[in-house]
Design a protein that fits this description.
Layout lengths: L1 H7 L4 E2 L8 H7 L39 E4 L6 E10 L5 E9 L4 E5 L6 E5 L5 E6 L2 E6 L4 E4 L9 E3 L4 H6 L6 E3 L5 E8 L5 E6 L6 E6 L9 E8 L4 E4 L7 E8 L5 E8 L4 E8 L5 E8 L10 E3 L5 E6 L6 E6 L5 E3 L7 E8 L4 E6 L8 E6 L5 E3 L6 E6 L5 E8 L2 E12 L5 E10 L2 H9 L3 E2 L1 E6 L5 E7 L10 E6 L18 H8 L3 E6 L8 H5 L7 H15 L4 E11 L1 H11 L7 E5 L10 H8 L6 H5 L13 E7 L8 H12 L5 E5 L13 H17 L7
Parallel strand pairs: 36-37, 36-38, 38-39, 39-40, 40-41
Antiparallel strand pairs: 1-33, 2-3, 3-4, 4-5, 6-7, 7-8, 8-9, 10-12, 11-12, 12-15, 13-14, 15-16, 17-18, 18-19, 19-20, 21-22, 22-23, 23-24, 25-26, 26-27, 27-28, 29-30, 30-31, 31-32, 34-35, 35-37
Amino acid sequence: MRLLFLFLALPALCWSQTKTITLEDVYKKGTFRTDPVSASFSESKAPSPSINWDRFSDAQGKKIGRPDDIIACEAKANLQLLRTKTEPIYRRSSKSLLYLFNSTDSSLVQIGGDTKSLHPQFSPDGQYISYVQNNNLMLFHIPTATTQAVTTDGKWNFIINGNCDWVYEEEFEFSRAYEWSPKGNYIAYYRFDESGVKEFNMTMYDNAHNSDYRYKYPKAGDDNSVVEIYIYDVNNATKAKAQYETGDIYIPRIKWTTDDRQLVVFWMNRHQNVLKLLSTEATTGKSSTLYEEKNKYFVEINDDWWFLKDGKHFLFSSEMNGYRHLYLYGLDGTIKKQLTKGNAEVTEVNGVDEVNKRIYYTMAWPRPMDRNLFVTDFSGEKTYALTQGEGWNRATFNEDFSKFILYYSNINTPQTVSLQQVMVDKKKAINAVQEKVFGESPKLKATMRDYGFGAASFIRIPNSKGDTLNGWMLKPTGFDSTKKYPVLFCNYGGPGSQQVANRFGAVSNWHQLLAQKGFIVVSVDNTGTGYRGEEFKKKTYLQLGKLEIEDQIDAASFLGQQPWVDKNKIGHWGWSYGGFMSSLAITKGASVFSAAVAVAPVTSWRFYDNIYTERYMRTPKENAAGYDDNSPINHTDKIKGKYLIIHGTADDNVHFQNATQMITALVKSNIDFESAYYPNKNHGIGGMADNTTFHLWSKKTKWILNVLGNENTLR
């Protein structure tokens, strides 16, 4: 404890300040924009031929303009798919007008007419363009310029083909719900029957009488869409239905093996603690179990699955032994190898070199907040570190894995981008040798010096349960240990998340602005956050919010004992799950937190979607106390300090309902509060053209300065 106190009491490090950070610098002027870097594997890259898009017109003679997106056809280099007039839908989905461009004769063909479509793709053989329009999966045959409908029963809020329903898109993190087979003979797709899913409606304040937006959103305990997987035979125009146990289940992924006739359907029960991979025949839909994993809490779903080109093995990551590691299994079940081990977690697979039988991956090592690059062979017996030390390394490899572009930064230093060569010596040992540096962010570093950016330090704080929590601290400019400063906790805290990271940007420009104003800014990763093993992350199972806020309270109490902290001026702010935490801080944490800002907060998990919520809490019927005991709505009578709640009225993710129900509880408890709402804004509450982003951050900043400021802060 004494060593920890001495570490915390170290003076703040910062550059001499000549300029003052303003909100305009952060949110309008782009003063701290990162240096542009041109990094590639080739020494000289011929510039792409310039195309005058203004000479192309649509069917009505209107200029199409510069495309929003250009999709190349790998099978035929002369073909490109253009997306124009793109509109966002939800977090991962958007719709556009589509055009097929042929660079050989500069011809332009509109695909799908004047109706906007989603998820356009070329087939692997370059014969077709697939897309989703009006909830139906469509195919455009390029040689004959004809369109065929794979499905015809699509209908808004009833049937979806080839695209996800809202909750799958948000929580299973994909939107395009179809996959081409490797050779392009088949296309597997999802069919969602969401007719039994309850609707949620949002008022859009867009005309004299407003409008009503309704969509299917299953809240905790509600019924889900009925999901079916079909495999369409492109050549014969026939389809087979994938066979699996139906009922209250999820299909979080489908993936093809290298065999054009073998689809893998990922099956999961509603509790999400059983995952099965079902090997499914393309022609008949018959299936058999390829892999099964069970967990006493829940199984994490991700895209870390590779079906190798040899047709015999697959690679994947799993927490089955307490930490996320890599495994190599045989498709016939005869081989089961754990390739990586230890108490440091694999965070990303950067590439699989099947020729040399090596896997390149990133680990949270040597500390949970660091990232380093490693390589391991398929036997798991030879492992080499390609980067070392504390900091954050991110890598992109070339096709043959002979080189990679390395992006390195740490919490106080902008990124350096370099080209690294993978070297294999005579004893087959592997290391990386730097070939060249593309950029070291000189302009940003100079700007940081001019504005006197402070240096954040990592801290470790004990909680009352015997764990030690990781955090970072940014002290005020010109820190004086004889003075008392207010503290602002910046927290997200949700399952598997991480804010205490040794990368540039973890401490934001806004944090630096607050430090210049005289605030101590702190972030602490509580119990339930990621990269410290399964048990630390899953301790919060069935009781979201309980241990998390107890950790934040412990950290605030600890800091409040330090002689340079104004214990009566400790605040907490967060967004989304972080807003849930801030609302708990001002209620259950009323003894230590004197102010809180909650932006777009969940205020009761009864109001949130079922896939996310039930993964950690099961259903409200099964776990009523878990839902209610830690809902800030049920603790408003404890509030002693100041509370600001902010929400967008068109938040499709965390509904505005959460704010209204919290305010209802505040009124009932006769608690004074402040609120702000942003009409027609979604969960991100953003917008540069209409000034929303600047307005929100200005309001929040001024409120914090006014409520938490003391004699040692600037207003």
